[in-house]
Specification:
It contains 13 helices and 22 strands. Strands 3, 14, 15, 16, 17, 18, 19, 20, 21 and 22 form a ten-stranded antiparallel sheet that branches. A six-stranded mixed sheet has the order 1-4-5-9-12-11.
Length: 649
């Protein structure tokens, strides 16, 4: 079958630097390909089971009279169903391109779920299991009812299945594909009619904007793009009205074009900006693109955790002030990491600025990697950078270890849909060649041939590219210029086999080669935070390449409490020594205070005469400990963890 596009497919006239390459195949033996395999073999099926067990499907059955129990879960539970349908669509597309069939659970779930949606939809196209039910009036609470947010995820599910070629599907899935598109179009047209009639059509949770642009791209209907632009322009004019949470929470505090700082609920901010970039690409509106870039810089320059996590406050799941980055109270919601990856990918496609790609690295290899365990069935909702020894907090969607599901279940299916479509973020075509956006192990189509990438990233610095005939696999000279984005935290050492040069974060390889080897230097580095990040003063973090490392209680001596540990003064530099959980282990020298060494355990003891604590002479003997990649922490059971390690008192 001919490769089909993924979740971002700019139109022919779009103002973009590059367009995602179709037909990329991730190597299941590589880091990202192995995760994609876990996602399809475990995560998607797990999500399908949870939809049934936790009531999201029964909420929709209440609309058809097939379930008479109370509605359960959050008001946006319909979106969880749509995210899983989207994940199933991208996985089915991948499976068909690989000559495989979709999994049995998926093949049963999709037709049944789409049939349920078709029966639950009202005659005028409206579809929502919360608003309009149990005495609630439709469209009566745009701030909170999430009607348009749910529609956005329905549209994205329909786009995913629309981009699965119908001729390659078994009959039940082929029918479901067409019916899902119809359900989505009817609901979207219902909203269009309200907009044209002058009714307010703005959602307290942005997401519909990026979905409408992609629905326009998939269907060719200009009205969906116009509606997305209207929604973007309507923000910041008190459209949603007053609320105790304040207008910034809903992204209604300031027009997008005028906003200077990333504010409010982090996921809302990032989803909105993804839609802004999509709309700017399709309309050629440089002002909108500039606004998105400005707000991206605000978030990443002063409000981003070192892991790529977004959101400093549990209250409102929000951004804090500039440099407000507490490691133990940082919220860093998984959905915010998903949204940030989506935004950075879109900005990279729009501009070609490699800095957006480096942000993708940071998020992918740290914040996203930590969000799920190796089984693909246990997840973090909040991903703080420190877990204290006595941590509690399940009531805050922030338990001390990953959970199989959450009452607010937005994050697990969000991860599932992102991973199912991740191969579409690996490479893109430019006006003069091919750009490898994520240099991971994969096969990438290239002018009738294919480029095979064998990458040791994120844990190793060797990257090998081979150009081959797609049919025979024989070496074939590459006929186009190839740009390879250099990863976060790595320095280029050598390039062998081709003429190449570095240009603004890209390694540009000229045509005519059949094999290229790239070696990147990725030493363990000690980093500090900006001096205005008060919560991080006197602390250090260890990174290697794009990977942030963490210290777990499992790796310090028995009886040593992680909160008492600090980097030993004058110790040797961190070094790589052996492996931990299949990744390179970074070894550091640490020290801890002996119990009672500083006298009574006062909360605020008197400091030394110079305002600092002089060494007491009672410091425990130093020891070495292995650090684990942040993305792998917690896989040996619950326990304390910290990314930022004190470097002194």
């Amino acid at each position: 079958m001919r490769p089909a596009p993924g979740p971002v497919a700019p139109g022919a006239a779009a103002s973009v630097w590059a367009r995602p390459a179709a037909g990329v195949v991730l190597d299941p033996g590589g880091w990202l390909g192995a995760w994609e395999r876990t996602n399809r073999e475990a995560t998607i099926d797990h999500c399908i089971a949870q939809l049934a067990e936790r009531g999201a499907l029964d909420n929709l059955r209440r609309l058809t009279g097939e379930h008479d129990g109370p509605r359960v879960g959050f008001m946006f539970s319909d979106s969880d169903v749509y995210k899983v349908l989207e994940a199933a669509g991208w996985e089915t597309q991948r499976a068909l391109e690989a000559g495989e069939g979709p999994g049995e659970t998926l093949a049963e779930f999709v037709p049944d779920a789409v049939d349920l949606l078709s029966r639950a939809q009202q005659d005028d196209g409206y579809l929502n299991s919360f608003a309009g039910a149990d005495g609630r009036a439709r469209w009566s609470n745009l701030r909170w009812d999430h009607e348009l947010y749910c529609l956005g995820h329905l549209l994205q599910a329909a786009v995913a299945w629309h981009r699965v070629p119908a001729g390659d599907l078994a009959a039940p899935l082929a029918r479901a594909r067409e019916r899902l598109l119809g359900v989505a179009r009817r609901f979207a047209d219902h909203v269009l009619a309200r907009w044209r009639a002058g009714e307010p059509v703005l959602c307290g949770h942005p997401e519909i904007e990026t979905a409408l642009v992609e629905f326009h791209r998939a269907t060719g209907v200009r009205a969906y793009l116009d509606l997305a632009v209207a929604m973007i322009e309507a923000r910041g004019h008190d459209t949603l009205g007053p609320d105790a949470f304040g207008p910034a929470y809903f992204q209604d505090h300031m027009p997008v074009r005028d906003a200077r700082d990333a504010e409010g609920h982090a996921v809302r901010q990032l989803y909105l900006l993804a839609g802004v970039v999509d709309a700017a690409a399709e309309t050629g509106d440089a002002g909108l693109l500039s606004a998105a870039e400005r707000l991206w810089r605000s978030a990443h320059a002063a409000k981003m955790h070192v892991t790529g996590g977004m959101g400093s406050r549990h209250r409102d799941e929000a951004y804090g002030d500039d440099y407000e980055l507490p490691p133990d109270r940082g919220y860093a919601e998984t959905c915010a990491a998903v949204a940030d990856f989506m935004l950075s990918h879109r900005l990279l496609l729009a501009t070609g600025d490699a800095g957006y790609g480096r942000a993708m690295d940071r998020t992918l290899y740290n914040a996203l990697a930590a969000a799920v365990d190796g089984t693909g069935t246990r997840f973090f909702y909040s991903c703080p950078l420190q877990m204290r020894t006595d941590r509690a907090g399940a009531h805050e969607q922030a338990p001390a270890e990953r959970a199989p599901w959450y009452e607010c279940a937005c994050c697990p299916p969000n991860l599932a849909r992102l991973l199912a479509s991740m191969r579409h973020a690996v490479a893109a075509s430019t006006d003069d060649g091919l750009a490898v956006l994520l240099p991971v192990s994969a096969r990438i189509p290239s002018n009738g041939a294919e480029i095979v990438v064998e990458s040791a990233l994120p844990y190793g610095g060797a990257v090998q590219l081979s150009s081959r005939d797609r049919e025979s696999g024989a070496p074939e000279a590459c006929g186009e210029r190839v740009r390879i984005r250099l990863p976060e935290g790595a320095d280029l050492e050598t390039v062998a086999g081709a003429e190449a040069h570095v240009d603004a974060g890209w390694l540009v390889v000229e045509p005519g080669w059949s094999s290229v080897r790239i070696d990147l230097r990725m030493g363990a580095m000690v980093r500090r935070a900006h001096h205005r990040a008060d919560a991080l003063r006197g602390h250090r973090v260890i990174t290697r390449g794009p990977v942030v490392y963490a210290l777990e209680s499992a790796d310090v001596p028995a009886g040593v409490r992680l909160e008492d540990v600090r980097l030993a003064q004058g110790s040797a530099a961190p070094r790589v020594d052996g492996e931990i959980l299949g990744a390179p282990a970074v070894v550091v020298s640490l020290a801890s205070d002996e119990a009672g060494a500083r006298g009574p355990e006062q909360l605020y003891p008197v400091a030394g005469a110079d305002g600092l604590d002089a060494p007491s002479g009672a410091e425990a003997a130093g020891f070495t400990a292995r650090l684990v990649p942040f993305g792998l922490w917690g896989r040996r059971g619950a326990g304390a963890m910290r990314v930022w390690i004190p470097a002194g008192d």
